[in-house]
Every structure is written in structure tokens, then in C-alpha cells.
Amino acid sequence: MCSVSPELGGFAHLTVEEALAKPDFGVSRIAGSPDLLTVNPPLAPEFCKRGQLEVGPDGKIVAFEVLASQADSLDVNEVLRQADQFDFAGGKEKNGDQVYFSALSKDKKILIRFEVQGHRSVLSWVRYSY
């Protein structure tokens, strides 16, 4: 749903300065993370309001990422029903024991990450590339 939000789509390929110049969207820098900005577009779907804009090496915005809360849910079976549209990968975090798997859309625009907690797969974050 975030990938089709016109408010979030409007940040595609902007510079950090151009994004920060949009005061109505709640764009701000994240201390200690020069390649991330927070964004809170007022008319975007609720899930999308917790977004972070990712800045590429050229200083332009290349993607936005939405961190899921415990209230957010995406049934892993929904993704699996559309398995032909995704490439799947998984593993264990290098610096911990967290097991995860991800689904990357064939067009490389959407990356969905689930963390495995016990016998459940829990939505962790979604990344939308421009």
C-alpha cells in the first residue's frame, strides 16, 4: 500500500535538502544515520506513516522503509500465495540468533522481511525502492 501512496512517491530521487524542504511531511534527519531520514506524511495510509527515507551514495533518496509495529500484521500465507511474484531468502543475523526470511519482488521494488519467533513468522519491515 505504501508503494502507491503519492505522498511517498513524491520523494523519489530528491536530494536530502529537497526532502527536508517539505515541512508538511515531517521529514527530519536521524541523528547518527546520515543515510536515513524520518518521514510522516499526513495523508499516507497509517502503516506508511512510520517510514524512513533511505539516501543513496549519490545523496538522493532511493527507497523508503517502514518498520512494523506489533499491531501490524501481514500473514506470511498472503505472500506465499503470490510466491511466483517473489524471490525468497533467509538466514540468521550475523551478530545474533535472530532467524529471518525475506521476500523480494521480481521487479526488485519491494522487500518484505519476516522474523521467526518460535513457530511464528512476524512482519519486521518493508522496503520500497524507487
If you had to describe this structure to a student in words, what would you say it looks like?
The chain has helices at 6-9, 16-20, 76-81; strands at residues 28-30, 33-39, 51-55, 61-67, 86-92, 99-105, 110-117, 120-129. With 130 residues, the chain is mainly β. It folds into two domains: 2-67, no CATH class; 76-124, no CATH class. The protein has an eight-stranded antiparallel beta sheet. A hairpin with a 2-residue loop joins strand 1 and strand 2.
Strand content is 35-45%
Taking the alpha carbons of the first and last residues, their distance comes to 14 Å
Shape, per Cα inertia axes: globular
What is the H/E order?
HHEEEEHEEEE
Oligomer: single chain
Q: Strand tally, please?
A: 8
Classify the secondary structure makeup into a structural class.
Answer: mainly beta
What value does the Rg take, in angstroms? 15 Å
Uncertain runs: none
Q: How are the strands of the largest sheet arranged?
A: 1-2-3-4-8-7-6-5
Number of helices: 3
Summed up, what is this model?
This protein is mainly beta and 130 residues long. It is built from 3 helices and 8 strands, in the order ααββββαββββ.
